[in-house]
Amino acid sequence: MSWIQKRRSEAYYKKARLEGFRSRAIYKLKQIDEKFYLIENGMRILDLGASPGGWSQYSSLVNEMGLNVALDLVQMRSVENVYFLKGDIFQKDVWDKVLEFSPGGYDLVLSDILMHTSGDRSRDQANSYFIAKRVLEICEHVLTRNGKALVKVLQGDLTEDMKKEFRKHFKRVHLTKPPSSLPRSPEVYILGEYYSGSRSDR
Ligand SMILES: C[S@@+](CC[C@H](N)C(=O)[O-])C[C@H]1O[C@@H](n2cnc3c(N)ncnc32)[C@H](O)[C@@H]1O
Predict the structure, then answer these.
(1) Which of 5, 103, 112, 196 is most buried per CB count within 10 Å?
(2) Closest Cα to residue 72, out of 92, 96, 93, 98?
(3) Quick check: is 86 catalytic?
(4) Which residues constitute the domain of residue 97?
(5) How many domains does the chain have?
(6) Per the domain annotation, does 114 fall within a domain?
(7) Ligand 1, atom nearest to 134 Cα
(8) Ligand 1 and 59: CB distance under 6 A
């Protein structure tokens, strides 16, 4: 990591600590929200891969009148106004568990999930593609008509394919990298808006 990147990373880390947030990841969601008006207070939000909870803290603040449900393999310390579920997105019928909190579905699905990176770029990218596909499958069961999904992927040869997958289900698709995401990091976020997927009658 170059010294500029290190300083930037440390700056966001310190800012998060000073402002009482658990991870500097919170600024990625905040910046995407400010750019795309992602969250409207009163929404039903499902946050996948939520621990340690920066995104959940942000959602609980800006969506204080709505429903915030978080899921992760790893236990998350409680966040006010957020229901936490310990689970794996690859668990069979994981959607049944999340729908217990909101039988009518969710207006926004977030995924900041990343598997442990191996250092092998193409393998890591393939894993992130696989995760994003699974998130889209979950969306088919839980996302409402005209809902939105924001999913982290590692940029590479498969990114265009994933955007195409999104275009099959969302009327509008963006690829975005918030300023707080380190430039050297291959992470980017795909945002789908106006969902028209199969469970669109919700
Ligand atoms: C980058 S962290 C998320 C940071 C979080 N957005 C925040 O703001 O604090 C990625 C998370 O994805 C979770 N994760 C990885 N694989 C998962 C899976 N199969 N199912 C659920 N969560 C998973 C990890 O446990 C980890 O907590």
Answers:
(1) 112
(2) 98
(3) no
(4) 25-195
(5) 1
(6) yes
(7) 19
(8) no
